[in-house]
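hi! just following up on the protien thing from before. the input was this:
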Amino acid sequence: MFNLISKDKKTRARLGKLTTLHGEIETPCFMPVGTQGTVKGLSSGDLLDSRAEIILSNAYHLFLRPGLEVIEKTGGLHKFMGWDLPILTDSGGYQIFSLALLRKISDRGVEFQSHIDGMKHFFKPEDVVGIQKILGSDIMMPLDECVQYPCAKDHAEVAMKRTLDWAGRSKKAFSLQSLAVSEKRQLLFGIVQGATYEDLRRTCAEELSKMDFDGFALGGLSVGEPASLRYNTTSFTAAFLPENKPRYVMGVGLPEDIIALVELGIDMFDCVVPTRYGRNGTAFTSEGKITIRNAPFTQDCRALDKECSCYTCKKYSRAYLRHLFNAEEMLGPRLVSLHNVHFYLDLMRKAREAIGQGVLAEFKAEFLKNYNSR
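and the predicted 3d structure came back as:
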């Protein structure tokens, strides 16, 4: 469960520890995304070397491929992936609404066609809990309805109310399948929806809080809204969530977003950005983003980031990494992805240290000053 260790005196940032079946997670934390059972290009050893404490995978993708039978036969998702530390599985609600070829949403659940082979499937909230029970993830997310930005208020309200109904059904199904509360078990988080409408967000947060989930996520953010609106929505909504439970903003984002939301009291983050950018040759550094394919790095003998201690920065030059990308060698995307994941995890470690010392605001200002210096 979650232990709130301390709070920063100048901001709303928090230090905490989340205990799961497969280990403890220090918060605030970043979860590298292994959507299809792998953090793209990286091995479990790479992630351990980067000191990752938890990764995220996706129930929708794993249900479609390789399928539950395969994962169950191999002993669950942890053994299938060769990862012994905690895993959070997203329900796939966002993927259903964004990737499925055709979908039909009703109060019962979601009918959709696979984006892989076009086969029809139907997910009820109870089904999604059952899928994640088979996967054996440490933290599971319920089925929710994520809306686009911008979204009309009447549409957002229908989706929010449906999300609440599905949350209640998920909690009931989860309780029936779980061990006694006193024993070790998987954790189930609730997801707050409501688009950018404060009254809808407040209603959703308050109703979910009454259901006593193990943690709470803010969904429906980082879907195209301006950063200022994202921060305002997060700040407003977090105030209506229990202080003794972890808070998770889903799918965010860039380093500047994460550090801003840490300051607002958010404990958990995930995003595909580190590996997606890495595969395209963009590296995050203490002095901002750089595109390693560019000509200025042709004879640059420096490491990607002089402040970084990752394997990539200890062993290889910018010139070599540029060569790999321009020669279309697969090692290039792998090495930059490795660096980016390490950069994100190191940012969280430094943020935790700053919170512990009561200097997060100063740390954030210094980080952004250097990061935006290019």
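The longest strand covers residues 14-20.
The two ends are 42 Å apart (CA to CA).
cheers
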